[in-house]
Design goal:
Elements: H1 2-22, H2 28-33, H3 49-75
Helix pairs in contact: 1-3
Length: 116
Amino acid sequence: MSILLIVIHVIVSIALIMIVLLQTGKGADMGAAFGGGSSQTLFGSGGASTFLSKLTTAAAVIFMITSLGLAYISSHRPEGSVIMSTEKAPVEEKAPAQSDTGAGKTPAAPEKKTQQ
């Protein structure tokens, strides 16, 4: 469920960025008022401003809903802490003592002979 919500969230966020970048600023309306090609628009004489503003609103609402959903899912995860685990730690056993057979002993240093 959370993977699907994350995928939707990422797609909507990219779409929201693209929609906002496609919109024209408020100052572009003056150029269109003097015959700046408004008759050749794809969305009619009203332009794409109303369509893009509605699309921006819809994408923003979906973005907020997915954000709230992801926040809810992340805050209600089951407790799975390693520190607060209810299982007991395994008991460690001590290594067996080594016998005196000489296998574990270090050799003694050789005696020094003095020359006369």
